[in-house]
From TrEMBL:
The keyword Metal-binding does not apply. Keywords: ATP-binding, Nucleotide-binding, Transport. Transmembrane segments: none annotated. GO terms for cellular component: plasma membrane. PANTHER family: CONSERVED COMPONENT OF ABC TRANSPORTER FOR NATURAL AMINO ACIDS, CONSERVED COMPONENT OF ABC TRANSPORTER FOR NATURAL AMINO ACIDS-RELATED. This is Branched-chain amino acid ABC transporter substrate-binding protein. It comes from Pseudooceanicola atlanticus.
Amino acid sequence: MTTPALSLKNLSKSFGPAKIINDVTLDIAKGERHAIIGPNGAGKSTLFNLISGLYVPTSGTVSLNGTLISGVPPHEINRMGLSRSFQVSNIFANMTVRENVRCGVLHSLGQGYSFWKNIGTQKDVNAKTFEVMEHCGLLDKANTPAALLPYADQRSLEIAITIAGGADVILLDEPTAGMSHSETDRAVDLIARATEGKTLVIVEHDMGVIFNLADRISVLVYGEIIASAPPSEIRGDPKVREAYLGDEALPEEVV
Ligand SMILES: Nc1ncnc2c1ncn2[C@@H]1O[C@H](COP(=O)(O)OP(=O)(O)OP(=O)(O)O)[C@@H](O)[C@H]1O
């Protein structure tokens, strides 16, 4: 069997007496697009924080491409090939689109933002920055300060920064939150293109997005995964329907 891109084993996280993530075991294959869904407060962001190293597990482990990463600091996990976006935007408002993407590229190289770098490296960084902006439909806004971008473009920039470092495992936290229908459609296209050939783990409340994008869906309820299967099976799962009763409806019409 090939090594999974991500492997969570008996992962738990408590805050004081409250067990927020409870014995989660999940393998995500290389190249898979995997969605985590669940009602508000189910623990989705906490799970992301455990995977990306912001939280240390109370028990259990996380492995990235077969290497144990639980307890490793977030910036090192990033350099090992995992990059995440945040629900609250991570962009530098006063910097241009180009400078923001460039920061993402440099960060992964461990250089920080500096003008004092040799020309060879600068050329590589510039080429990568151009490629990412092109990929994310941001080339024509390269010189626009991020703060002046329309909201949907700011979210695209967030995705651009997340993929800029060339990580092969990408975690996106609610990338289409607050978008209109047409903006969401464009964002789904962008996410599909930008993560081609990579492993994607996405937390998202918009079921249309999830059912159109994901190869497999895990449903988190009160910190436990109650189902993990392709979209067609998830939609018909009575346990999932019960968990969503009174919450976001599972769409019949998508896919
Ligand atoms: N640092 C913390 N200390 C204490 N409790 C926390 C902490 N972080 C999260 N929680 C609690 O864990 C639970 C799960 O929160 P989390 O944000 O992971 O849920 P979620 O599924 O991402 O929710 P949403 O869909 O609303 O974003 C909540 O009850 C929250 O209050």
